[in-house]
Amino acid sequence: MWGFERLMGAGAARAKAWAAMVRARKAGGKAWAAMVRVRKAGGKAWAAMAAAIAVAALPLALIGCAGGGDRVTLVLDWTPNTNHTGFYVALELGFYEDEGMEVTVMQPPEDGAVALVAAGRAEFGISFQEEVLIAANAGEPLPIVAVASIVDRNAGGVMSLAEAGITRFRDLEGKRFGSWQVDVYDEIVRECVRLDGGDPAKVEFVPNLAMDSLTGLRRDYDAVWVYEGWDVVIAGLSGVAVSFVPFRDMGPAFDYYSPVLIMNAEKVGGDLAERFLRASGKGFAYAKENPAAAAVILHKYAPEVSLDIILASQEVLSASYYEDEWGLIDRDRWLLFYDWMKGRGLLPADAGAEALADGAWGR
Predict the structure, then answer these.
(1) Which of 210, 219, 235, 272 is buried most deeply by CB count within 10 Å?
(2) Complete DSSP assignment for 225-270
């Protein structure tokens, strides 16, 4: 963990932003969700967060480096998992080296990849469409854009123990939902309940304090936001019967891009992005065609994760990376979710940043 006193020396605003991130992380939600919360404090908090990273030589966990040539850093959104397999395949099989790049893959700081990329301390990062849109449309916007999709379909949804009888969103009425306490996610759940003919006011949102989803379902709540290719797979391997209801089934606006590859908007020009995406695309193509072999490569870089989990997850996710070409973003799909967020007051009324790099939808 970064030294809190170091940020204190960087200024009270930065320390306040950091404290908010630490509290959110300890609460058990996603690390990057803290950035969304800090956004509520205003654009200055966002700017201070990026500045704090830029001025403090903060260490990150190195989890992959190979090749020679142009030095490139990719910051993950979380610990290595099957969303990231293609990057590790490209690293392991020399695809980045073939493109004249020395690529370093790093785990993120507590606030995720966005601030690092915005501050120019990393060339690429992994984020999510909702996070990118909030950052790009803040009072003092962060200069980030999405340059590629990583998984073509939104794999998020609501998981519950089968015995709870939650097989559709309106079944959440009268139930406890384990919330990250971030507006955009709670509003998505409410909207899906509403679209399914239920009353979102009858859903009880409780803090998600559990270290893992299955523990939380047994102890704290009846349903929780998870990702099909990971949490549902782990439940299956654990012999736990669960129900999973995907958000994308409730309309095209909820088949948004999660996760995405981001870049500093001021550095999009030139051929660096083209070379990195070309090599990464080869990695994801390999993972799509060779899920077991790709899983073994990922496990080399993430030995703390059970190989059985990685193999099972890879079988699920490899088919979802893309249909025709990895990385392409459907601009209309992107704008559907952007319009939904704006219409729900989750973005400023005058939000105008689509935060989508030119050409991301048609390389």
Answers:
(1) 235
(2) EEEIIIIIHHHHHTT--EEEEEGGGG-GGGS---SEEEEEGGG-SS
C-alpha pair distances (Å), 189 with each of 35, 280, 340? 20, 33, 13
Provide the CATH number for the domain around residue 201: 3.40.190.10
For the stretch 19-31, pLDDT in tens is: 343 334 333 444 4
Round to whole Å and give the CA distance between 158 and 177. 9
Residue 298 inside a domain? The answer is no
Is 79 contained in some domain? no
**Domain stops at, among 253, 278, 306:** 253
Q: Which residues of 121-138 are buried (b: 16+ CB within 10 A; e: fewer)?
A: bbbbbbbbbbbbbbbbbb
Sheet strands side by side (includes 204-207)? 204-207, 176-179, 223-227, 156-161, 242-246
Counting the structural domains of the chain, the total is 2
Q: What is the pLDDT of residues 156-204, one digit of tens each?
A: 999 999 999 999 999 999 999 999 999 999 999 999 999 999 999 999 9
Domain termination site, one of 232, 253, 274: 253
Which residue is listed with tokens 């320390």? 15
**In-domain check, residue 147:** no
Q: DSSP code of 356? A: B
Residue 36 corresponds to which amino acid?
V
As a whole number of angstroms, the longest Cα–Cα distance in the chain is 58
What separation in angstroms does the CA of 37 have from each of 111, 123, 230, 314?
A: 11, 24, 25, 32
Structure pTM?
0.83
Pairing of strands 144-149, 260-264: antiparallel
Pairing of strands 176-179, 223-227: parallel
20 inside domain: yes
CA distance 38 to 15: 12
Domain that holds residue 29: 4-55
